[in-house]
Automatic annotation (TrEMBL):
SMART domains: TPR. Residues 52-66, 109-127 have a biased composition (Basic and acidic residues). The keyword Repeat applies. It comes from Mesorhabditis belari. The keyword Repeat applies. InterPro entries: Hip_N, TPR-like_helical_dom_sf, TPR_rpt. The lineage of its organism: Eukaryota, Metazoa, Ecdysozoa, Nematoda, Chromadorea. One of its GO terms (cellular component) is nucleus. TPR repeats lie at residues 121-154. This is Hsp70-interacting protein N-terminal domain-containing protein.
């Protein structure tokens, strides 16, 4: 019995040093006994003996969603090379760049010229022919234009001015004059002749051949025939395709 008293004394000494031991779950019966005797149990410390210290909750971090894989670049479809379109071999020697096709006064072909206007137009034509013979093509062009304004219904004047325009390397404008000459007179051999030459200078071989052949048919001309033979090789190359 004395041994048990000694152990109790040691236990009481321990309580004096640390009263929080009374809050041990195993001493619940002892706390209740002391309180039944009117005793006061000191408050438990923040972390009472024998009780597990609550673990701090780990701060939850938002779940990081995996980033989607980069989109694959679309593969370029292999394009097959376009087949080469065969084209006839042509001799383009003498072909020139087209002019701007600046419109020249054509006059009013619906208006019939008076005898006086026709006479003045003839004078302008003669002056133009003289300037043309002297190689003064710009001057000749001015006289032909004045003559056309006086007598716009003359197919011959339009064809003559077209020839002057060819000398000035203005085939596009020459074609316009020749077309006007043919509109006035469908049998204008010179209109077809000079239009055919203009097409040849532009490399319009088929049109050139057609107009020059028509000119020779309407009124054979050595120069027109020479120009016709000049375009025939290229026309044959076209025909072989």
């Amino acid at each position: 019995m004395e041994q048990q008293f000694g152990q109790l004394k040691l236990f009481v000494d321990l309580l004096k040093k640390d009263p929080s031991i009374l809050h041990h779950p195993g001493l619940t019966f002892f706390r209740e006994y002391i309180e039944s005797l009117g005793g006061n149990i000191p408050e438990a410390k923040q972390c009472p003996f024998g009780e597990a210290k609550p673990e701090a909750k780990a701060e939850s971090k938002p779940e990081k969603k995996p980033s989607p894989p980069p989109a694959a670049e679309p593969m370029e479809a292999e394009t097959e090379p376009e087949p080469e379109i065969p084209y006839p071999e042509l001799d383009n020697e003498g072909v020139i760049q087209p002019d701007s096709g600046e419109a020249l006064p054509m006059g009013d072909t619906s208006k019939e010229a008076s005898e006086e206007e026709i006479e003045k137009a003839q004078e302008e034509r003669n002056a133009a022919q003289e300037a043309f013979s002297n190689g003064e093509f710009d001057k000749a062009l001015e006289h032909f234009t004045t003559a056309i304004q006086l007598n716009p219904g003359s197919a011959m004047l339009h064809a003559k001015r077209a020839n002057c325009l060819l000398k000035l390397k203005r085939p596009v404008s020459a074609i316009a004059d020749c077309t006007k000459a043919i509109e006035i007179n469908a049998d204008s051999a010179q209109g077809y002749k000079f239009r055919g030459r203009a097409h040849r200078l532009l490399g319009n071989w088929l049109d050139a051949h057609k107009d020059l052949a028509t000119a020779c048919k309407l009124d054979y001309d050595d120069t027109a025939n020479e120009w016709l033979k000049e375009v025939e090789p290229n026309v044959r190359n076209f025909s072989s395709f």
